[in-house]
Amino acid sequence: MLARAVLLQMAGNKKIESFARTNRLAASMAARFIAAEKIEQVTAPVRALNKQGLTVSLDFLGESVTNEQEIAVVVDTYLRLFQHIRAEDLDSNVSIKLTSVGLDLDPDICYRNMARILNAAGPDQFVRIDMEGSTHTQRTLDLFWRLWEGGEPHKNTGVVIQSYLHRSEADIKTMIEKQVRVRLCKGAYKEPATVAFQEKSEVDANFVKLMQELLLHGNYPGIATHDSKMIDATKQFAAENNIPSARYEFQMLYGVRRDVQQQLRQEGYNVRVYTPFGDHWYPYMMRRLAERPANLWFGLRSMIGK
Ligand code: FDA
User: How do residues 77-93 score in pLDDT, each as one tens digit?
Assistant: First the structure.
């Protein structure tokens, strides 16, 4: 628990970030979780996953950008990414964090950027809006609804709901009512007890409860976890309720439990691999290490072994 708290604290530290970005050890650890630095380089890892029957969600790492120039780079990257996915015929949708396209700067700028991205995606391409820390939850959902129901409605998008938040049961109800596509995950940020369950057992119990609601009534939910207990609970509930595997998908992160990803696919389940790329990898890598501090030692061992 202490290691998780410290690593999550470090994830938000800009000084450590600028050190890490020039450090060989940090870069080698990042390579485990990040598929590529540039768009052109995503083709090979995505093709390799597609070959195994796994679909992909590409995410350009660019959270918490602070000025319009950086935001313009992120928007432009997503527009080029859609062209690349089509040109290379990759089986991939995309994921995006609203803070990378202006949520912290101005919600109107963020709305315009997202509308542009969703128009460029077109009706055949799906854009998942990732969920960030709890200070962004309401603003993220407000912006989502503006896109979904506004003057020019965009239906090629969906949200992420985190089972550690107390509010999530109510949010899931609304998403089901409107048949919004939901990715369910446990939640990756450090949150206070006022908004989030603190005990793993509570987060897990809520995950199972929300998974069951989504499987019964949701629109093609993504069940995003590497936890065998959650995966088994999902399979068992689907079997008991005659819910065909085509009605939902499992989602996992690039480089995490690759054996389980393949095993599930071989058993006939849909599996999507969330695949980040870009050079702004530090906060993403730190959240992955916080989930599993043992990965720190894998990283060190692989460095020493080289
Ligand atoms: P958890 O970390 O609770 O671990 C439970 C058990 O799973 C472990 O004890 C171990 O047995 C097994 N396990 C987990 N990781 C393992 C590993 N690397 N190797 C071997 N065993 C392992 N979060 C967020 O806040 N917003 C978001 O938008 C997203 N998006 C997202 C997309 C996708 C596709 C995934 C998979 C996850 C996210 N997350 C996220 C992250 C999520 O909230 C959560 O932090 C991580 O998935 C970790 O939780 P788990 O359910 O995987 O297991």
Answer: 999 999 999 999 999 99
Are 272 and 222 in contact by the 8 Å Cβ rule? The answer is: yes
Query: Ligand 1, atom 15: nearest CA belongs to which residue?
Result: 226
Ligand 1, residue 256: give the atom nearest the CA.
18
Helix (H) or strand (E) holding 206: helix 200-217
∠ Cα 235 238 244 (to 5°) = 110
Whether 234 lines ligand 1, by a CB cut-off of 6 Å, is no
Extract the tokens encoding 226: 């590497």
* Centre of ligand 1 from the C-alpha of residue 87, in Å: 32
Q: How far is CA 260 from CA 14, 154, 189, 211, 254, in A?
A: 34, 34, 24, 19, 12
What are 98-108's pLDDT values in tens digits?
999 999 999 99
Q: pLDDT per residue over 263-292, tens digit each?
A: 999 999 999 999 999 988 888 888 888 888
Domains belonging to the chain, first-starting first, are 1-33+284-306 (no CATH), 45-280 (3.20.20.220)
